[in-house]
Amino acid sequence: MTDENNPQVTYKTDSGVYNVLKLSQDAQGLFNIIVECTNEVNNLRRRIAVLDAAVQNFNGQMQEQIDFSKTSEICCENCGGKTFKQTLLMRKMSALVAPNGQETIIPMAVFACEKCGHVNKEFADVAGVQ
Questions:
Q1: How far apart are CA 91 and CA 124, in angstroms?
Q2: Cα–chain center distance at 28
C-alpha cells in the first residue's frame, strides 16, 4: 500500500522488510531522499548505457571510414611514448582583455604522455586555438 507522501512504504534489508511509516518523520524524509537518489542513479545508468552504445556505434562507423595506413603516429617528444591521457592546462586571462573585465582562469584540454607526463608542443599550442 502506498500514498502520495510515501510512494514506497516498505524497504527490504538483509534483516527483513520494514515499514517506513513506523520510522520517525526525519527518518522517513531521509528514506524518501534515498529512494529519489536511487531512482536518479538508475536513470543515469540507463542514460550512460544509451550513450555508451551511441559512442561505440559512432566509433565503429568512424573506424570504417578512416584508412589508418594514411595516418602518421604521434609519439612523445620527450620519451618516445606512444600512449597519451587527457589532462588540463590552466591558462590565466588578464582582466584587461577578459570579456567580463575580471581575471579569469581557463582550463584547456590537452593530451599528456602516459609514460612521462610530457605535453607535446602540438597539443599545447595556444596560438592555434581559436
A1: 11
A2: 32
